[in-house]
């Protein structure tokens, strides 16, 4: 994610619209058409603006306790028809409950909770994570 960790900041990533546009460019450069967007933690600042503006361009969405879910209304979420797997670890008592509270308004969602996993549930319980993710991917059209 530009501007996080050791990556240099990117000017366009300052606004939600800029982050959405950045993600559009990434998909375009990679030649991706209707990808499944997996979005853990801080990447929510990029994925959520994209989902709400262009959810129809995604085959699926997998938010993993993303940040920024409270920036949008229940009504905005209800307008998204993208199949979604809300995935989180049950030991993530910070972001996960807030994200679930907001994302549950997505009409085409289901939830997978990884027992004994924290915020980085994909690292804590990789086999359970991959099982849940692959199960979701198999059900997509």
In short:
Its main location: cytoplasm. It is found in: Cytoplasm. By secondary structure, the protein is an alpha/beta fold.
Characterization of the model:
It comes from Oxylabes madagascariensis (white-throated Oxylabes). InterPro entries: AB_hydrolase_fold (IPR029058). This is ABHEA protein. The chain contains 6 helices and 4 strands. A 4-stranded parallel sheet has the order 1-2-3-4, sandwiched between helices. The protein is globular and about 35 Å long. It has a single domain (29-138), classed as Alpha/Beta hydrolase fold, catalytic domain (Rossmann fold, 3-Layer(aba) Sandwich), CATH 3.40.50. The chain is α/β, with parallel strands linked by helices and 141 residues long. Helix 1 crosses helix 2 (44-54). It has helices spanning 16-30, 44-54, 74-78, 95-103, 121-124, 126-139, and strands spanning 36-40, 60-64, 84-89, 109-114. The protein starts with 15 loop residues before the first helix and ends with a helix.
What keywords describe this structure?
alpha/beta; about 140 residues; ABHEA protein; cytoplasm; AB_hydrolase_fold; about 15% strand
Strands ordered across the widest β-sheet: 1-2-3-4
**Mind telling me the CATH superfamily name?**
Alpha/Beta hydrolase fold, catalytic domain
Integer average pLDDT: 92
* Alpha-beta classification: alpha/beta
Terminal CA distance: 28 Å
Net shape = globular
- Label the CATH architecture: 3-Layer(aba) Sandwich
Q: Quick one: how many beta strands?
A: 4
Biggest β-sheet: count, sense, barrel?
Answer: 4 strands, parallel
Radius of gyration: 14 Å
- The secondary-structure element order is HEHEHEHEHH
- CATH class bucket: Alpha Beta
Strand content: 15-25%
The CATH topology is given as Rossmann fold
Total helical elements: 6
Helix content: 40-55%
């Amino acid at each position: 994610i530009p501007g996080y960790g050791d990556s240099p900041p990117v000017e366009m990533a300052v606004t939600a619209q800029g982050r959405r546009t950045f993600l559009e460019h990434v998909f375009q450069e990679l030649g991706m058409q209707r990808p499944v967007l997996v979005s853990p933690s801080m990447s929510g600042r990029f994925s959520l603006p994209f989902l709400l503006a262009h959810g129809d361009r995604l085959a699926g969405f997998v938010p993993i306790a993303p940040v920024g879910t409270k920036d949008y209304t229940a009504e905005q979420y209800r307008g998204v028809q993208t199949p979604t797997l809300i995935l989180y670890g049950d030991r993530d008592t910070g972001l996960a409950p807030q994200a679930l509270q907001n994302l549950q308004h997505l009409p085409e969602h289901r939830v997978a909770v990884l027992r004994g996993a924290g915020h980085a549930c994909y690292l804590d319980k990789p086999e359970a994570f991959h099982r849940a993710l692959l199960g979701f991917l198999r059900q997509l059209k």
